[in-house]
């Protein structure tokens, strides 16, 4: 039985166990590699550009979106989309976890939601991160000094770079799974006997152990690469992810709450400052001085620590393994960081795409539209303060309605465009290749998320 068929059968079992109903986003296409400004123009301009280039040597699709851009990119690196490493996905330990997850069906444990995001294909599927690391590896290439035995010539990357892509996905997945833990008792009652809510206790055990298993395997593979600089770099991204869980105010379930408005007003411009969080030695911790309360800086800090650091340092690490110059390695970090932030801005906009919030729907209270609106209308913070014990006490429909009427959405779109352009700028310095075009198409596809 082929490896791809084994993967498809295994994913089908997981789908059945986790219930049905996830929607798969429609198809899309690639567009040609053009300048950053044209790539990030409005949809109408993109369609005009595609029509004008219809006679080019390579055919161009009429539309583009996330799934098609990712699908085309996978063909370039020659690996399947989600979960690059089937070795750990199909291991006995993970198979047992999948079976135990069935016991949680019908409960409200957040681990089920996390599992659905990881298994179902969709625009929010973070498992494309390994793919991005491989595309960066292929687009930049490697130094002539790299031995032939280290090269996977069919894919155009190094074996160590593929291992790093797997490590990146495992770390990210472990982080998401660990975030599914539920605080079952307040701090004042810590150590006392828990209530009889066995489903929630069981879900916590599965989330803790499965996340630890993935993280342990990632660390083992990282050590196996025997590159001290890379180990230090990726280890610092693990520290950043841990620190992201302790930034700012939080409710008793560790859901983040925005800081009270009061920082310096932010002006998000496409040509604005892009250097926030860029340290001379990016293995050092980031400072939060004069950050909290400033919407753009607070948002950037939260998401660089929680995600951008890992993707940026993984791209940087891929170039370390390729023996590239230090300056090019730094450009790899900048590309990954800006791509992650642009991606997050797109995700933050999604709950505000419709004028009415469906009953029972929630969204991140530290998303960019909310933070920008609080700067515009600080009085809305009184509603958010109701969630200091639990975010369930907050009227999300009221916040949703206010944010839609304010400038937060336009500022978030400008923020997304700014980081997309910054990522494009790095790509435009690379020689033309299929891998570079695929990365540009992924960035362009974000515009339509």
How does this structure look, described?
The protein has 449 residues and is mainly alpha-helical. It has one domain (61-186, 195-263, 273-448): Farnesyl Diphosphate Synthase. It is built from 18 helices and 2 strands. It has helices at 3-17, 36-39, 43-52, 66-77, 86-89, 92-101, 110-119, 129-140, 159-178, 198-224, 228-243, 295-321, 326-349, 368-376, 381-384, 396-405, 408-427, 434-446; strands at 151-152, 157-158. The chain has a two-stranded antiparallel sheet with strand order 1-2. The longest helix has 27 residues, at 198-224. 40% of the residues are buried.
Summarize the topology.
Elements: H1 3-17, H2 36-39, H3 43-52, H4 66-77, H5 86-89, H6 92-101, H7 110-119, H8 129-140, E1 151-152, E2 157-158, H9 159-178, H10 198-224, H11 228-243, H12 295-321, H13 326-349, H14 368-376, H15 381-384, H16 396-405, H17 408-427, H18 434-446
Antiparallel strand pairs: 1-2
Task: Write out key terms for the chains shown.
2 strands, mainly alpha, 55% helix, 1% strand, Decaprenyl-diphosphate synthase subunit 2, globular, Farnesyl Diphosphate Synthase
The largest beta-sheet arranges its strands as 1-2
Q: Gyration radius, to the nearest Å?
A: 22 Å
**H/I helix tally:** 18
User: What is the string of helix and strand elements?
Assistant: HHHHHHHHEEHHHHHHHHHH
Q: State the helical fraction.
A: 55-70%
Mean pLDDT: 78
Number of individual domains:
1
Q: State the total count of DSSP E strands.
A: 2
Structural class, please? mainly alpha
Poorly predicted runs are 17-39, 41-63, 81-86, 268-272
N-C termini distance:
36 Å
Characterize the overall form: globular
User: Can you tell me the CATH architecture?
Assistant: Orthogonal Bundle
Return the CATH topology: Farnesyl Diphosphate Synthase
- Write the CATH homologous superfamily: Farnesyl Diphosphate Synthase
Main sheet specs? 2 strands, antiparallel
CATH class: Mainly Alpha
Strand content: under 5%
């Amino acid at each position: 039985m082929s490896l791809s068929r084994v993967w498809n059968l295994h994913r089908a079992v997981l789908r059945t166990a986790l219930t049905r109903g996830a929607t798969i986003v429609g198809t899309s296409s690639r567009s040609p590699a053009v300048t950053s400004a044209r790539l990030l123009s409005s949809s109408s301009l993109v369609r005009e550009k595609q029509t004008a280039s219809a006679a080019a040597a390579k055919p161009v699709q009429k539309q583009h979106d996330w799934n098609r851009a990712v699908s085309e990119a996978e063909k370039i690196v020659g690996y399947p989309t989600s979960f690059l490493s089937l070795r750990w996905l199909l291991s006995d330990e993970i198979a047992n976890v999948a079976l135990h997850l069935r016991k949680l069906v019908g409960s409200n444990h957040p681990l089920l939601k996390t599992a659905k995001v990881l298994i179902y294909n969709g625009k929010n599927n973070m498992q494309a991160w390994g793919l991005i690391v491989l595309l960066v590896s292929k687009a930049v290439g490697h130094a002539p000094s790299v031995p032939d035995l280290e090269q996977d010539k069919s894919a155009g990357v190094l074996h160590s770079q593929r291992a790093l892509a797997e490590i990146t996905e495992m770390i990210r997945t472990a982080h998401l799974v660990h975030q599914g833990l539920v605080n079952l008792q307040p701090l004042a009652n810590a150590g006392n006997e828990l209530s009889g809510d066995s489903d929630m206790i069981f879900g916590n055990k599965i989330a803790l152990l499965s996340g630890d298993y993935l993280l342990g395997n990632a660390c083992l593979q990282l050590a196996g690469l025997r590159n001290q600089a890379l180990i230090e770099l990726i280890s610092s991204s693990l520290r950043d992810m841990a620190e992201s869980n302790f930034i700012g105010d939080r409710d008793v379930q560790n859901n983040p709450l925005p800081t009270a408005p009061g920082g310096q007003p932010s002006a998000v411009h496409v040509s604005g400052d892009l250097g926030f969080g860029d340290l001379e030695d990016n293995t050092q911790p980031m400072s939060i001085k004069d950050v909290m309360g400033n919407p753009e800086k607070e948002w950037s800090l939260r998401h660089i620590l929680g995600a951008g650091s890992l993707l940026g340092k993984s791209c940087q690490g891929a170039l370390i393994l390729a023996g590239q110059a230090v300056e090019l390695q730094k450009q790899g970090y900048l590309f990954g960081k800006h791509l992650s932030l642009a991606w997050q801005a797109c995700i933050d906009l999604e709950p505000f795409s419709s004028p009415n919030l469906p009953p029972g729907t929630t969204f991140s209270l530290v998303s960019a539209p909310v933070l920008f609106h609080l700067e515009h209308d600080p009085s809305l913070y009184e509603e958010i303060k109701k969630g200091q014990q639990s975010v369930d006490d907050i009227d999300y429909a009221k916040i949703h309605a206010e944010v839609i009427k304010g400038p937060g959405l336009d500022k978030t779109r400008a923020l997304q465009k700014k980081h997309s352009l910054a990522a494009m700028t790095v790509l435009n310095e690379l020689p033309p290749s299929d891998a570079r075009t695929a990365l540009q198409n992924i960035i362009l596809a974000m515009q339509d998320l």
